[in-house]
Amino acid sequence: YAMLLSLIFLIVLVAAIVGFVFRHEIKTNFESNLNLALRDYNATADRHSEAVDTIQRTLHCCGVQNYSDWERTEYFAQRGIPRSCCKSQDDCSEGDLKDPSKAKLKVFVDGCFFLVTSVMESKMSVVAGISFGIACFQLVGIILACCLSRYITNNQYEMV
């Protein structure tokens, strides 16, 4: 049991170290995937499109760096900026969303990449605290399992 807990502890430790060391690569990959999701965006029930809409509605943002990122997509040429960028769904018409100067007043202007990464970084302290607490319990479990094993081994020879 102590060996199993030690293995799990080492796996969690290595994952935390790798996540910390490669955090910049994670950000870069997230930004490129968000750009790809915008490029391939369509109004159908595609998983990537739904994810983009959910991020934009939840974080009140639009595009990767800002709302003008949508101008370089095929979706913008057909329908303009998506409705998930609108500040108020009632006040957003399709004509406004096709005109970037009018859309600036109707949609969220901040990009989603900065907001997503800042939310993730603000929550990392909570994740690190919970991980540290779990690691402490694992270490206590390892120590107690070793003590129990030692106690059982010592008592077998005294019973005779």
From TrEMBL:
<comment type="function">
    <text>May be involved in cell proliferation and cell motility.</text>
</comment>
<dbReference type="InterPro" id="IPR048232">
    <property type="entry name" value="TSN6/7_LEL"/>
</dbReference>
<keyword id="KW-0812">Transmembrane</keyword>
<dbReference type="Pfam" id="PF00335">
    <property type="entry name" value="Tetraspanin"/>
</dbReference>
<protein>
    <recommendedName>
        <fullName>Tetraspanin-7</fullName>
    </recommendedName>
</protein>
<keyword id="KW-1133">Transmembrane helix</keyword>
<dbReference type="InterPro" id="IPR008952">
    <property type="entry name" value="Tetraspanin_EC2_sf"/>
</dbReference>
<dbReference type="InterPro" id="IPR018499">
    <property type="entry name" value="Tetraspanin/Peripherin"/>
</dbReference>
<dbReference type="GO" id="GO:0005886">
    <property type="term" value="C:plasma membrane"/>
</dbReference>
<feature type="transmembrane region" description="Helical">
    <location>
        <begin position="126"/>
        <end position="152"/>
    </location>
</feature>
<keyword id="KW-0325">Glycoprotein</keyword>
<keyword id="KW-0472">Membrane</keyword>
